[in-house]
Amino acid sequence: MKVHIIPEPNRITVTDKIVFELTGLCNLNEQKGCNKAFSELTGFISDEFCIELLGTGKEEIRLSLDEALTASESYTLDITENLIEIKGADEAGVFYGVETLKQIFLQCEEKLPEVHIADAPAYSYRGFMLDCGRYFFPKEDVMKFIDIMAMHKLNHFHWHLTEDQGWRAQMLDNILLTEIGAYRSHTNFGVKPHGGFYTKEDMKEVVEYAHKKCIKVIPEIDTPGHTVSAIAAYPELSCFERNLNVATHCGVKHDVICVGKESTYEFMFSVFDELMEVFTDGIIHIGGDEVPTTRWEICPHCQKRIKDEGLKGTDDLHPYYLSKIAEHIESKGSKVVMWNDTVKEYMTKSSIVRQLWDEEMSESDVVSQINKGTEFIISFVNAYYLDLPYGQTSLKKCYEYNPCYKGIAEDKKNKLLGVEACLWTEFVPDMKKAGYQIFPRLGAFSETAWTEKDKKSYQRFFEKLPFYEYMISSYGMNFAKEKEALPKGLRKLGSLLYWERRKLCWQGLHNIIDNNKVKRKYKGEENK
Q1: Nearest-CA neighbor of 157 among 281, 74, 278?
Q2: 122-146: b or e for each residue (b if 16 or more CB lie within 10 Å)?
Q3: pTM beyond 0.85
Q4: Where does residue 112 rank: exposed (0-12), middle (13-18), buried (19+ CB within 10 A)?
């Protein structure tokens, strides 16, 4: 008998012998430390089979921890005569065993074959990022993404909460960030206004929900770039205190946080302090990439900061600012993550985790930094950016990419923490489009994150697609068909041409004109 599991277990044996039948008389027993898995399984059985387990029969489902399992998040699942036994190295391991069992139930219904599984993750960090800065997704949709992450055995939810186009995290100490910064007059898709934000209670609810699924939540407050929404709310955060509107279109903006004013640091410290009260997993993402220095070059505050701190020039302001922000967050007990594309001076601060998105950074540079002790997460654009068209990143390309770096010292291999798939939403306005972009690529990604490299098989994964679509449809999510996920010929070309329309929404000419206007108005003030 063939049983499909996504992501593929590292060791699995299935026979044709039916050995277990689920009935209302079944016993479900849990040891201490298995509560999350117990709740997940009882909820599933009730929802899927409308069965309330009475515990008076001979069949038994047993959940327990096993000290013999040494790998974090590992589990074993054995289905034998009248017994389903799941053992985990820890609470998460038992939970993932239940997630696997749920998939077996979905295929075999109440009558299960003999199964033996021994499983453990390839990477400790298995992430999914949802960008809510461009398009706001309601709390209920965010929770649906968390459910889907759990099904894929992903364990870090990266919540991108701020952008030029919207500030989504309520800050009671700085209320204008959401009263003004959470709303833009229109979007790339027309003249309709768009906005929304999460209250502190909303965010706490999401964190609590994720924890029930053994998922940590990493909030991102992007700084010092991608901050037009914050500047629109508080113009004093910028170099020249211009009155800006929340950005309506995509593209890197010249207006960024002023890193010369001491008040800027005080403001951002207060933002991160309030954020850490809500997000308790001890990991904070500070963005940090795509920061034009054109404002800093003519800003008297920034130029004074260079002289006062003995910096070499304007380029040093970027690492200087990020280091100060990181040091403040670390002093509060949280780890810091930031985006990175190439090796820069601020990479000497090895405590900051680097999330690589641009493949321009050479393998030798990555290996060198890892061997110095720096931790990395891999999120390369052309493999793991799920908003890209299938014509650029097909299902097969996504599946077959493996972050493999040679030359990492044996005692530093754990510094390559893992991988993260990202859904940017400037061209993903709703859940229908999100589903189309994510599935089936998230399943392909999950096998890189979880399954050992030599156990992966694209052909086997391809054979799972009908079952995979069935699972995803149960969440009410859209799913790209085979010809869409693996486009050829004119379909592939059309996919790429459709994507290129983004350039028409970039406002590049406006940005150039506006930047020149600012330079003419303020040039020379840095010397006053």
Answers
A1: 281
A2: bbebbbbbbbbbbbbbebeebebbb
A3: yes
A4: buried
Query: DSSP alpha helices (H): ranges in 299-345?
Result: 300-309, 317-331
Q: Work out the percent of the chain whose per-residue pLDDT is above 90.
A: 83
Q: 1.25.40.10, 3.30.379.10, 2.60.120.200, 3.90.70.10: which CATH number matches 11-119?
A: 3.30.379.10
Structure tokens at 516: 């020149």
Measured CA to CA, the distance from residue 486 to residue 467 in angstroms comes to: 18
- Contact at 8 Å (CB) between 437 and 393? no
Domain 127-332+383-511 grouped into CATH 3.20.20.80: yes
3 state SS of 13? strand
pLDDT single digits (tens) 231-271:
999 999 999 999 999 999 888 899 999 999 999 999 999 99
The answer to whether 31 touches 97, Cβ cutoff 8 Å, is no
Task: Say if CB 174 and CB 181 are below 8 A apart.
Answer: no
> Could you give the residue range(s) of every CATH 3.20.20.80 domain in the chain?
127-332+383-511
Please report the pLDDT score of residue 523 as a whole number. Answer: 77
Are 337 and 218 in contact by the 8 Å Cβ rule? The answer is: yes
Backbone angles phi, psi at 75, to 5 degrees: -155, 165
Torsion, Cα 228 232 237 239, to 10 degrees, reads 70
Token pair 């391991």 in the structure block, residue: 93
**pLDDT per position as a tens digit, 433-477:** 999 999 999 999 999 999 999 999 999 999 999 999 999 999 999
